[in-house]
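haha ok so turns out i had the wrong file open the whole time. this is the CORRECT one, sorry everyone. sequence first:
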Amino acid sequence: MKKVAVLLAPGFEEGEAIVTIDILRRLKIEVETLSCIATRAVESYHHIPMVADSTLKDAFDTNYDAVVLPGGPEGSVFLAQSAEVLDFIRRHDEQGKLICPICSAAARVLGGNNLLKGRRYVCSGDLWQKVSDGVYVDQSVVEDGNLISGKGFGLVFDFAFTVAARLLGDDRPVKEHAEHIYFSW
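then structure:
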């Protein structure tokens, strides 16, 4: 079974995290939420408390098939400034695992730390204008090698279904599930 880490930092965009977690779990993909602070309790951008499955510190040595980085103006800044988060992403990227930022995370976390490595990506707003090591593409979801980036919260279903399809290696169950919840993917 494929295993995904969803990194939750203080101020994370809860909609991007929850919808992605929901879609992946519905498709029988194991998801582990990891708090990027010392406690499992993390508060989202809109002040919704959430309890993660574990902390990044406790799960740091675990290898995942994908790492999901929800955005949020505060959450993505926190992720971008955390040496532990960056080391975790680098290790998974070097192993060819899927790196999956959505919204501001592609620009702030990856672009802000030279982790795009020339790959094509999408992010929210005009954050792409401050990024020099990647190629911005204005699409809902952009795939380039092991990088899958999503534009933002309004497109989170497209993002989550794309991540699921790549993890499963098969679009069919993903399309069936999308139809089941009345989403055209």
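DSSP finds seven helices and eleven strands in the chain.
again sry for the mixup
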